[in-house]
Amino acid sequence: MASVAHLVCFNADCRAEYAITDVLYNCTRCGGLLEAIYHGIDARDLKRTVCERRMSNDPLDASGVWRYRELFPFLDDYSLVTTLREGNTPLLDAPLAASYAGLARLTFKHQGFNPTGSFKDNGMTCGVAQARRLGMRRVACVSTGNTSASMAAYAAAAGIEALIFLPHGNISLGKLAQALEYGARTFEVEANFDQILALVRVLAERVGIYLLNSVNPFRIEGQKSIIFEMLDQRDWRAPDWIVLPGGNLGNTSAFGKALREARELGLIEKMPRLAVVQAAGAAPFYDFVANGGSFKAVEKPETLATAIRIGDPVSWPKALHEIRSSCGVVEQVTEQEIADAKAQIGRCGIGCEPASAATLAGLRKLVAKGVVRRDADVVAVLTGNVLKDPDYIYRYHTDQLKAPDGSKIGSTYGNRSVVVPNDAEAIERAL
Ligand code: F0G
To answer: What residues are paired with 110 via a beta bridge?
Structure first.
């Protein structure tokens, strides 16, 4: 039987169904988030099929996203796919980071190896394919930098116009530079991420542009491939824990959905637990899970990990469901903890951007609290490349890094360059 795809309201009390080609980001009945669901997925030979595809030169098979296409079969025509060979990111053992966290062993799944340097490419190739299927000529997003870099690249490759809205003064230069280089029309709005998202949702309706933020369910479908590829690389042995940073919580939603579906299809034998880590200055999801009550947005989110500087994450209802389904936990970490963990990841020869380092900082706390056992099998997902934010790195190592409240961040593992004269003897002395 061929698989059938629908859009369905995520709200358990509603579950309204829509056609997969409806241009919708929220349920028209109750306003809930939407998700793609499928009937008739046959995963029996899938493990062998994806293995064989690794030897294929077909661009669809060579993509670390589309290689797993049977697990998100929303598209009926694969000639609509624009691929930059996304995914195919490595699992890296990191003994130094493991001992920093207090673990016997730790593996990083490094999404910074993607074509535009972040995990957003996994979702964007799917979002842009759907945009092409719907005949969209313009796509738009609000971003803390990585979504925009990714959307700019995929839209350019697909010949679609990209409109990008960024919080002025609060994204790293590397990410802004990418959007410009890939030819996107770029607007720096004098507001924060949450305010701009509300603005652009109004604009999308008024002027008919297709939104490629993570409210777009097809982005979430693509990000599931991060989990499928990781499991495939481990011969479908599920780890005990998967650790990731949380901002708008799209990735948490995607990871949880992927794990539930993999379990239901019999691809894995147990559910790993999700651990989501937020920066303490932008931690509404942590507060909500820790303290209960109603969900309260953080009005003025602050963190140097600008990728996750988000106070009102749109995907929190999905993320909450995934934390509950996976017996997951949510942790928060300080600016100093992020900075030091990041330097440790650098010392492994791996490196990442600040938001990604929240994983190691969070793990260290969770191990110390006894939530994660020292001998646990843990995969932490590094979401962005080390070169995304070189300014932060330079300031840390030269003892000039300051938290948003003006307090100093210690250069605990600092490594300074030394200026020397053009003189062999002087350099010998310096050595
Ligand atoms: N890590 C990095 C490097 C990110 O860029 C983001 C999100 C996250 C983690 C958090 O992921 O939002 O799915 O919980 N960046 C978005 C952007 C918001 O616009 O690039 P999330």
So the answer is: 382
Residue to substitute in 248, 249, 274 for testing ligand 1 pocket (most ligand atoms within 8 angstroms of CB): 248
- Ligand 1 midpoint to CA 41 (Å): 29
Residue nearest atom 15 in ligand 1 by C-alpha distance: 307
Q: How far apart are CA 364 and CA 361, in angstroms?
A: 5
- Compute, in angstroms, the gap from residue 310 CA to the centroid of ligand 1: 9
- For residue 257, give the H/E element and its range: helix 250-264
Q: Return the CA Rg of the chain.
A: 21
60 CA to centre of ligand 1 in angstroms: 25
CA distances from 66 to 19, 39, 50, 55 (A): 22, 19, 10, 14
1, pLDDT greater than 60: no
Buried/exposed 199-218: b ≥16 CB within 10 Å, e otherwise = ebbebbeeeebbbbbbbbbb
Q: How many Å apart are CA 428 and CA 260, to the nearest integer? A: 59
Contacts of 73 (CB under 8 A, 6+ apart): 3, 5, 38, 41
- Under the banding of pLDDT at 50, 70 and 90, the label for residue 2 is low
Q: Alpha carbon 215 to chain centroid distance? A: 13
Cβ 359 vs Cβ 338: under 8 Å: no
Which token pair is 200? 């652009």
Max Cα distance, the chain (Å): 77
- Residue nearest (by alpha carbon) to ligand 1 atom 4: 307
Q: Where are the alpha helices (DSSP H) in 159-234?
A: 173-181, 193-207, 217-233
**In this predicted model, what pLDDT tens digit does every residue of 34-93 receive, in sequence order?**
999 999 998 989 999 999 999 999 999 999 999 999 999 999 999 999 999 999 999 999
Phi, psi torsion values for 52, nearest 5 degrees: -65, -35
Average pLDDT in the chain: 97
| Distance between Cα 339 and ligand 1 center (Å) | 17
Q: Which atom of ligand 1 is nearest to the CA of 251?
A: 13
CB-neighbour burial class of residue 123 (10 A; exposed 0-12, middle 13-18, buried 19+): buried
User: What lines the ligand 1 site, CB under 6 Å?
Assistant: 118, 120, 143-147, 214, 245-252, 307-308, 353, 355-356, 383-384
Cα of 247 vs centre of ligand 1, distance in Å, is 6
pLDDT per residue over 158-213, tens digit each?
Answer: 999 999 999 999 899 999 999 999 999 999 999 999 999 999 988 888 888 999 99
Question: Among 383, 385, 386, which is best to mutate for testing ligand 1, by the most ligand atoms less than 8 A from CB?
Answer: 383
pLDDT of 114 higher than 50:
yes
